[in-house]
Design brief:
The chain has 21 helices and 22 strands. It has 658 residues and is α+β, with helices and mostly antiparallel strands. The chain is globular and about 85 Å long.
Length: 658
Amino acid sequence: MKSKFLLTGLICLSFAAKVKSQDLIKQIPADAEIIAAINARDIVQKANAQKLNELLQKAGFFEKAGISANNDINNLGVDLSQTAYFYTRKTDSISFMEFILPLRNKEQFEKLLHTIGEPKALANGYTSIGMKAGNILVYNDKVARFVSATMNSTFLDNDSIASRYGIKRVEYVAPQSDIDYIETDSVAADSVTVSWEEDEKLIPVPMSPPPPPKAIEPDSVEAGIIELPPSAADVAAVVAEAEEMHDPGYYDSLYTAYENQNRKNDSIRNDLRDQWLMTETNRLLAGRYDILPASEQDKIVKKLGLARLYIPHVEELYHSFMPYKSIPYYYMGIHMDKFRTGYQDGMLDLVQEGNMIKMKASVGLDKELAEMSKKMYARKPNAKFSKYLTDKTLGFFNVNINSEAYLRDMPSYMAKYYSSLLGPQQDILEWGLMALEIALDEKAIAQVMPGDHLVVVNGLRKFKKDYIDYTYDDDYNATEVKKTKEETLPVFIWMFTSKDQRLIKKGMDLAVSKQIGKVQDGIYSFSSKKAMDFPVYVLLKEDLVMVSNDSLSLNDIRLNKTLGVANKEFAKLMKQNKMSAVFDVKKLPVMLKEMDVNAGRQFEGTIEKLKQYGSTSITSKGIVGNRAVAEMSTSLPQTKDGALSYMIDQIIAELNKK
């Protein structure tokens, strides 16, 4: 019976926490651009609250915040069983950021703020704390809301908008009369040297009035204006102006006016920002905004790990970063506002799975882009690739695309989504892409290179490298000398499927006939004429083309020699993903030692710990549903508390060294 009551109580608490979280997320406006959700309960649980307290204590947080009650995060007044939220919202004039923090104890939370300012009553049951300009903190018994505002720099670039608010453009530039400079030091008793244009010679002008012009017969006068030399009065006025401008006080007054107007402009901008910040804050507290739709709320809170970053409209956010409003793209006929990507919402998750930390990313695609992308990534890796992933493998990169679908659909994709960027040349681009689509024989190209590739790094090897050095005689005349040195480098093999190898083989045979390369036992080799690089070797085996920097590895493959014990983890990752890039971190210390890389004493301990790590990988399953998905993961040393707790242990250890 007691167990039933306990179960019922846990269900009620869980439901209550869920209701609270839903209430907080409803405080995010529907037009938010970027939204972040931070799962405080999951973080505290997986990081270990005791370790978090130790970390904050060593970082000086409790001391700076003036909290001494057991140095416990539970005494901050924050509700660590709920989710905190952050979002940004943008208008054409101003950008807002808000952090929404759930509270458990208002009085404890207020103790954190004693050094900031005096609490003041605000509308709708909220209290406010004055902070630095452009920021405000408001809170009640349940929630604290930190709101920040930043003026959009391009908004007041428009002169008509700027003048509406009393902002005047001012530049510290000397007037044109200062540029048309008169050399006052050359003034003589009877003449003044005047410079009228930069490319004209100096003209000596007499101080006395010029003689009257000679009489000109009416029929000899040409159309136009007869220019007379300046009078003595004009010259005197120019001299006086020049003397004034070259007085140091003249430039001081220019700079003073420039600074005064800029200070006034800044004051107006700051006043506008603070007014709009208060307007936004009052609007939020009064609930005068549309909330996120229920479907958007579910995307944010459903299966939330440690944290989630959510972008409701990727394409709109991308447009907001494009400067087409402030640069003359329209004058060139380029309509950046019509540019389309085909992307919808985007999501980035931070999760812990045992001893692994993962970042999972996905982006929604419109129907047409999703269908086309599924065709492009509809190819599986060649099963023969897996036997080249062994216990010696340091890392690999694998990608699989359908070359035929890619070549067939890419021209139409480019025409639809990118042709608007070329303005008047849009029709030409579309015509050119259509011609390319007709000209390409995608089926034939797909036979030569279907689209599956594997680059594998299998251990290290010492290579003899030829290089060019110089010797000098007594007259410093240089003579080239070919030398050889030994280096330890990773051995790589790039391989791809090719059902039709005729074109590739014909090209290499042609290179051999031109003495650009050579072939021995079926392995082609090509080297630089200057002998500055390592040779590149190529082997055609069955339906694979292999390119490597190591002829011994290719020769072993040619003779079907065993390369090592199969690496099942790597083979699984390669087979399950359309793209994968993996590196075995625990082999890094030995690799650096063999390559004679000295990381320094301060990093010796850190590098030695890497022997306990697993692999770091970036993988993608391609298109799942209507979303492009990818994932990055790191395997940390096995501990009973998991990956996040281990990371905090490492941070504390570093702080203890200081």
